[in-house]
């Protein structure tokens, strides 16, 4: 089984999702009757592929006090560093053991998604889950995402990452310098060099080819794992996301009890 990290910290500045809610951190924002973080931990704990779960946040004690998290086995809490990259660097296992990373706002996560991602990532050093635009829009045309445009498709991140031990440290150090631009697709691409930026702008290669070449810069085997479920890239970033996620959860509940949608 693979250990998992859930990034549950808060970004600098006010979060419009929390305005007037009386909640200090996004991870505890209720969706479909449960805190975001509870949905994520529940999905991970239900996966036979996932081992111990560590929740990272600036003030992890606040999350540890959430009553619904008390019933899960092998769940731990730790205070994070100043950024995602430094927090992950501190949490990496020794040697080449792999680590699964996801986020507290990935509330639609399921064990099936976890299995699909880990199967696709198994022989890589670094892997990133992504959803192609046609997959998302076929189900949820109203959903607005940030897209990376390459030959053969437009892609959006699905908040799952596979890191193989300490060998990924140079990549995390690099990410620490650019993570503030994580929502600006072209800035992220450009940070890897002019060859990747020009190739993306001119659609000279697929995203799989681009990520593989970017990984080689750090001596890593890197890959994209295309996710087959549109819900894999719908996270809770803005009010419209919350509304859509609530509808998806309602549909899941109806399907589970055999009622027509």
From TrEMBL:
Top-rank taxon, per record: Bacteria
GO molecular-function term, one example from the UniProt record: nucleotidyltransferase activity
Keywords: Magnesium
Keyword Magnesium in annotation: yes
Pfam families (UniProt xref): NTP_transf_3
SUPFAM superfamilies, A to Z: Nucleotide-diphospho-sugar transferases (SSF53448)
UniProt KW Magnesium keyword: yes
Transmembrane segments: none
Residues covered by the MobA-like NTP transferase domain: 24-131
Protein's name according to its UniProt entry: 4-diphosphocytidyl-2C-methyl-D-erythritol synthase
